[in-house]
TrEMBL record:
InterPro entries with a match to the protein in the record: Asn/Gln_tRNA_amidoTrase-B-like, GatB_Yqey_C_2, YqeY/Aim41, YqeY/Aim41_N
Pfam families, sorted: YqeY
Protein name: GatB/YqeY domain-containing protein
One GO molecular-function entry: carbon-nitrogen ligase activity, with glutamine as amido-N-donor
Superkingdom of the source species: Bacteria
Amino acid sequence: MALKEKLMEDLKLSMKDKDTVRKNTVQSVRAAIKQVEVDNRVELSDDDIIGVIAKEAKKRKDVLPEYEKSGRTDLIDELKREIEILMGYLPSQLSKEELGEIVKNAIAEVGASSMKDMGKIMANVMPKIKGRADGGMVNAIAKELLN
């Protein structure tokens, strides 16, 4: 089943189950996918949709510390659930060791020797790991390996 179809099925199921958090999360992802399709006048493939879902999950992860600072436990719990729901649509995440190997190979491929080559490393790694790891983690591992 295509990812778009799965999202639609999950939306229907969440409406039947009256699961508002899941319904709202799936609706926001579907809206983000539709926005990208309309803006670029293309039909997104499953790989492109995974990229959109990863971006939506990252947005929520980035906001989480702000919610924790404000002490809004009700919103924190809902946001964590949204992240969990989104992660369910993404491929299994890479471990730090697996990601380290990919970054090492990328450093060797591009001949990186200093922090100035970070852009080349990131450009090499990100398409390979689309939706399976966070760019911040890649950046941290690359910095560690270059130093």
